[in-house]
Each structure stands twice: as structure tokens, then as C-alpha cells.
Amino acid sequence: MKRIIFMGTPAFSVPILEELINSKYEVVAVVTQPDRPVGRKKVLTPSPIKEVAVKHNIPLFQPEKISGSKEMEELLALKADLIVTAAYGQFLPTKLIHAPAYRSINVHASLLPKYRGGAPVHYAIIEGEKETGISIIYMERKMDAGDILSQEKIRIENHDDVGTMFDKLSLLGRDLLMRTLPDVFEGKITSTAQEESKVTFSPNIKREEERIDWNQSAEQIANKIRGMRPWPVAHALLNGERCKIWEAEKVDDETSLEPGSLIEWDKDALYLACGSQSVLKVTELQPAGKKKMSAASFINGVDIHSIQRIGFE
Hints:
Layout: E1 3-8, H1 14-21, E2 26-31, E3 36-38, E4 43-45, H2 48-55, E5 60-61, H3 70-77, E6 82-86, H4 94-97, E7 104-108, H5 120-126, E8 131-138, E9 148-155, H6 162-185, H7 218-227, E10 235-238, E11 241-251, E12 262-265, E13 270-273, E14 279-286, E15 293-294, H8 295-301, H9 304-310
Parallel strand pairs: 1-2, 1-6, 2-5, 6-7
Antiparallel strand pairs: 3-4, 7-8, 8-9, 10-11, 11-14, 12-13, 13-14, 14-15
Helix pairs in contact: 1-6, 5-7
């Protein structure tokens, strides 16, 4: 029986680990990020992958930094046949990557070489891509640069956001991995080098990038809102305070008003001016210090004419 070390952290990784546990392979260890404080009360919370490992009594490792740690030496001593990573969240040292007999492979949520980095699903939606996918690659010290073992596409629907796409890609990654592993272990697979001329990057999203630029077109802004939902959530400033925008779509109207201006409203939506004279229909938002609400509730609770005067920044 082939012995596998699995490394992952968020919910995206869970179906992949669970399938490995239920397969003909033996998961000899799980590695995940340390417990982190979550929420306003900063409650120390285990990762979703830790919960799976504990449930199945699999040896668990949570080094703050794996490179050079005692945990890494313990993992090397296991003499696993393969390391599988899926959104683990740390670089692996070369010594560890190449230690297993069949090396180390990564389940990455993009169609590499596009969107190397930590936020491939966010950027695929923000950039208005119509499809994304899963790439299973050999790991290298350079981020997401290894040769491709297998790849499968999936469509991004107009209503998809980061949450729905992570759910779909997680299952796609699980199934593609299970189809790929037999060929890896039997030496039947041929890997393909990534075309460097087609490389793009998707670095982790910085806080300042969450803010909406009203000079962009309504379509670009709608893509950004979907590409940052359910986290970190795009926002604009209203009276100097953050107002998160949860749900919006472009409409086929035009306007000559300044970007960010409130054009009009009805019982269900606010209509805001964007770049290129385009119009965005906002149906769900969250003013600072309040819960997420429909546009109807928002309109009923504020002096809407004052917002029409000041607009969104």
C-alpha cells in the first residue's frame, strides 16, 4: 500500500483528504497550519483539515514554519511514497519536496500557467474569465512552477463567486487527483513543462485592493464583487466609512453622471454610475457596523437623498 503525507489547510482541501483516507492508499500523516484566532473574540480555531485528521486519528503536524523544523525531520523519517499538497499555505523546502520515492505533487485551483499564487480563484473571477480549472503538478521550490501531470477545466457561470467556485473546484480536484495517482505510481504518466511566456500571477489580495474603483466599468466592478465574495468582500466608502457591496450586476443603461453617483433607486435596488458611462445595479450591501441587508432595507433605513448628494467614493 502506497504511503502518503497530506498537507492542506482550508475547506477546499477537505474532500481531497477524505477521498485519500477512503482510498486504497494509506495517509500516514497530515500537516496543516497552526490553530488561528478567529472572529471578534479571537477564539483559537483549528483548520478544517485538522478536524478531519483528528476524526480519523491520523498523526497530525502543525509547524509554524515547516522548513528546518523538528516536524520536518519527523516527516522525513516516515519515508512516505508521496506528498500531496492542496492549499497548505507554506513553501516546502527542496529536501522535503524530493524526499518521497514519487516526489511531491500539488492540487492547484487554476489552469496553470495562468494565476500562479495564493488567490487563483479570486483573480479568475475578477478578470472575467469564463472558465478555470484544476492543475495537478509536480512541486518545485518556485511557486506553482512545476511540470503539469494532469489538468481539467470547469466553467465559471455568471452567478458564481469565490465560494461556489471553491466548492466546485474542490470536488474537481479530488476526482482528478484520484484519476492521476495510479498513473503516477505505475510510472505511466508524462508531465508537461509550463509555458513561461503564458505565466500570470495571482498574489494574495491586499486590503487596499478590496476597495471599488468607480471609474471601472460596471462589468468590471460586478466581476470584482463576485471575485471577492464571500471573502474578503469588496467595499466603497460612504460618508467616509466602509460599505461592503455583496450583490450587484451591470445593467444595459447609460449615464452621464460622475462615477460613484447614485443615479436612482427603486424598491429593490440602487443604481450607481460607473466608468465608461455604465450603470451598476446594487441589490445587497452592508454599511459599516451593520449586518448585511437588502437594498430595500438599506433604502428604508437611511436618508437616501443625502446619499444621492454625496455618492459613493
